[in-house]
């Protein structure tokens, strides 16, 4: 009988609470009896220098204990200015353990760092850390997969860790608490995989030795404990769904535009398809992307790809403009800054009228062009285009729309774009033509690589 009434092959009560932190990509509060460890996994889009350009990712861990995790206060290692040997040893062990079950090639050039912070210590902090860290890592990876930023699951199999030992009575026991651990004759930490293989065995006698028979007895107990821990890990992970991510990919779309006129049109068109539209006005912290490209496609890609990387999600961008035949296709990609001043519709329209002074109506043919770029991190960008023909009026007409709409006459409707209602414009505009083409190829693109 053990001091807390457990059987020799019985774990303490183990709980695994997932998603306990707002910011970390994966987080877990794990308890082994009175031992409590907070595990937080962070995904970073970079790797240590020795892996750069290799296509391989990295998984590592840090371990630390809060001052009052123990019955007397320990000075913080940050206050001491250096890590103790014990801390270094444990965090390396956690990192090694996790890397044993992750295919770093499949992870690609990303790093996952799992921070294990012991809130309360009552023996087995490293084994609880490894067991919890694996779950936090799995959550972070599942989210990457849900977002489409990881295509293939790099986790090869489950992994957990447990302590076993020999009490002074000679009895082999599973999952020692602090009281048992400090008196134990032999103390052993086992890190094992779901397949029953070992990653690490740390077994030491303390003023005692142990026999081969006792070693096998401890390994058997450990095996039992690991199986139970893996069952609990799976239970915790299976209970998780990622509804937020499903909504982001299925029902929400981010459009990399600052133009309120475009935003309204996208909202109307995608809203009718059941999407919520977010634009850069929802992310005021993101600086404007410089449109340094020479083509609509280059600029659309610049906007979509920069923002997709930044927000780590699917992003659509629009680069559009007016192409006037009598001006050899100008202002084209420079439409927004035709009059020099970016985004000044009145000045742009005035300059357009000035440039076309004396040009007769039959020679004032033009078209609106729109290139859409759909980008996701790690994916090749998809492009579609749309155009609508028209003529440039000599007097602005109508108050709807934006940009050059008051000067753009749509012959078949016998109205300027600015005289059309939003619905009417959205049926015929260059943007709506492009969006229709996008819907036709979107799914195929999303399923492909
Ligand atoms: O339906 C339209 N009706 C009237 N004018 C339009 C339209 N579509 C584009 N245009 C003009 C406005 C702007 O002068 C330029 C787009 O420049 P472009 O860089 O693509 O957009 P932008 O800088 O206003 O917003 P953003 O880059 O944040 O999406 O073409
Ligand atoms: Mg622009």
From TrEMBL:
Alphabetical list of Gene3D superfamilies matching this protein: 3.90.950.10, GHMP Kinase, N-terminal domain
Location of the Exoribonuclease phosphorolytic domain: 10-140, 160-222
Lineage top rank: taxon: Bacteria
Cofactor(s) annotated in UniProt: Mg(2+)
EC number: 3.6.1.66, 2.7.7.56
Annotated phosphate binding sites: 86, 124-126
Catalytic reaction annotation: tRNA(n+1) + phosphate = tRNA(n) + a ribonucleoside 5'-diphosphate; dITP + H2O = dIMP + diphosphate + H(+); ITP + H2O = IMP + diphosphate + H(+); XTP + H2O = XMP + diphosphate + H(+)
Gene Ontology molecular function terms on file: 3'-5'-RNA exonuclease activity; dITP diphosphatase activity; ITP diphosphatase activity; metal ion binding; nucleotide binding; ribonucleoside triphosphate phosphatase activity; tRNA binding; tRNA nucleotidyltransferase activity
Keywords, ordered alphabetically: Hydrolase, Magnesium, Metal-binding, Nucleotide metabolism, Nucleotide-binding, Nucleotidyltransferase, RNA-binding, rRNA processing, Transferase, tRNA processing, tRNA-binding
UniProt key word tRNA processing: yes
Similarity field: Belongs to the RNase PH family.
Primary role: Phosphorolytic 3'-5' exoribonuclease that plays an important role in tRNA 3'-end maturation. Removes nucleotide residues following the 3'-CCA terminus of tRNAs; can also add nucleotides to the ends of RNA molecules by using nucleoside diphosphates as substrates, but this may not be physiologically important. Probably plays a role in initiation of 16S rRNA degradation (leading to ribosome degradation) during starvation. Pyrophosphatase that catalyzes the hydrolysis of nucleoside triphosphates to their monophosphate derivatives, with a high preference for the non-canonical purine nucleotides XTP (xanthosine triphosphate), dITP (deoxyinosine triphosphate) and ITP. Seems to function as a house-cleaning enzyme that removes non-canonical purine nucleotides from the nucleotide pool, thus preventing their incorporation into DNA/RNA and avoiding chromosomal lesions.
Entry protein name: Multifunctional fusion protein
Native source species: Vagococcus xieshaowenii
